[in-house]
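Final report, closing paragraph on structural work. Over the funding period we assembled a curated collection of sequence-structure pairs, and we close with a single example.
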Amino acid sequence: MRVLALDYGQAHTGAAICDPTGTIVRPLPDISHAGTPDGLNSISTLVFKEEARMVVVGMPVSLSGMLGTQAQETQQFIRALEAQLQIPVKVWDERFTSRIATARGRYSTASKHSLAACVILEDFLSSEEFKTQE
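Its predicted structure, as stored:
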């Protein structure tokens, strides 16, 4: 199953997609202003083009497990995305993904946002939650 991952940000949202077997993850170009109607339409187009059957959105949870301002904004984005798409939208804890993406950025031409989306997707694909979805 092809899964699209998003690392939501108000200005830039990173994106990554996996192959149909869920083994190979590749970054996609960032989506500008993903929470706007144009941004949501861009995501819908991407879902269709990439034949994604599920979307995973990283949730910025603090180290203490609390949801701050960015998490609340991400929750609003997720609700808008669920209303826009006809496929499941899952939420995934994205702690440390930016640090991992920054380390990987030395070896990639992809944006740090899309590299973070790759980390989110890799984590999700290796989870029991994904294995029960297949």
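The first strand starts at residue 3 and ends at 7. The radius of gyration is 13 Å. We thank the funder for supporting this effort.
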